[in-house]
């Protein structure tokens, strides 16, 4: 059966997709990946992400200031984000990629938390969901989300935390992003978590060109491999593939307010 997927997290504004957009989208479509959410990571990429979404029907934009680039972000970048959200160009569907990261060197964590709070405030003001990055910071992120109370909620992408941490996000109404990590047999904790969570709380993603799947180590990840993430998930779940595909797609369309 031919399934239809949404890759809810793909950095399509980076190589190897830059300059090869049409062929990359054709490969994705052949695998059933009909929609792709492209989250920006720095202010200097906002215009390109919006341009890609405008020019290519399958692409949708998210704008945000990523915690890994905390040393680059300036006050004027937050102002630019606010201006873009106020303008609300077509196909802008989320604030992201934003979040917290305690894995990086020199995390400037207080500044990260301030920037996250400001961006969650913008998402709330503009009634948009958020796409969240979290490494070794799930508990702090969950606390920040409780304080912010973003009405449209969002997704904790590329999740690799514990079952209890995932459940804490789900209780607040957030989705959990399922990526290529589950294709690795050694990732037993993450595979076990994704097997146990409610299907209604999961979203499919690649994080391309990052997070390559098993068998593709050393190669850039690609959006068409969302179909392979789906296959890996089907091996872990008790539900039939038809039900899993339908629910994943329904979740994506609902969160990002995409037309069916």
UniProtKB/TrEMBL annotation:
Keywords: Hydrolase, Metal-binding. InterPro entries: Metal_Hydrolase, TatD-like. GO terms for cellular component: cytosol. Coiled coil: none annotated. One of its GO terms (molecular function) is hydrolase activity, acting on ester bonds. It comes from the Bacteria. A divalent metal cation 2 binds at residues 133, 157. The keyword Metal-binding applies. A divalent metal cation 1 binds at residues 9, 11, 97, 207. The keyword Hydrolase applies. Pfam families: TatD_DNase. Belongs to the metallo-dependent hydrolases superfamily. TatD-type hydrolase family. This is Metal-dependent hydrolase. It comes from Serratia oryzae.
């Amino acid at each position: 059966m031919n399934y239809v997927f949404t890759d809810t997290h793909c950095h399509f504004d980076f190589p190897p997709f830059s300059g090869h957009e049409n062929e990359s989208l054709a490969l994705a479509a052949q695998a059933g990946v009909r929609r792709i959410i492209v989250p920006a990571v720095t202010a200097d990429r906002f215009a390109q992400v919006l341009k890609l979404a405008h020019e290519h029907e399958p692409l949708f934009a998210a704008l945000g200031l990523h915690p890994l680039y905390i040393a680059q972000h300036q006050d004027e970048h937050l102002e630019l984000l606010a201006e873009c959200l106020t303008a609300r160009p077509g196909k802008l569907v989320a604030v992201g990629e934003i979040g917290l990261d305690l894995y990086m060197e020199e995390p400037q964590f207080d500044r990260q938390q301030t920037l996250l709070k400001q961006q969650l405030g913008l998402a709330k003001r503009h009634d948009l969901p958020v796409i969240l990055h979290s490494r070794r910071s799930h508990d702090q992120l969950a606390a920040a989300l409780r304080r912010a109370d973003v009405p449209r909620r969002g997704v904790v992408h590329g999740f690799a935390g514990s079952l209890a941490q995932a459940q804490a996000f789900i209780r607040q109404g957030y989705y959990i992003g399922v990526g290529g990590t589950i294709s690795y047999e050694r990732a037993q904790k993450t595979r076990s978590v994704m097997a146990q969570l409610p299907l209604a709380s999961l979203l499919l993603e690649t994080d391309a060109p990052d997070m390559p799947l098993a068998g593709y180590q050393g190669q850039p990840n690609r959006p068409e491999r969302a179909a392979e993430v789906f296959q890996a998930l089907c091996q872990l779940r008790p539900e039939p593939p038809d039900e899993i595909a339908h629910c994943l797609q329904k979740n994506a369309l609902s969160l990002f307010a995409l037309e069916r």
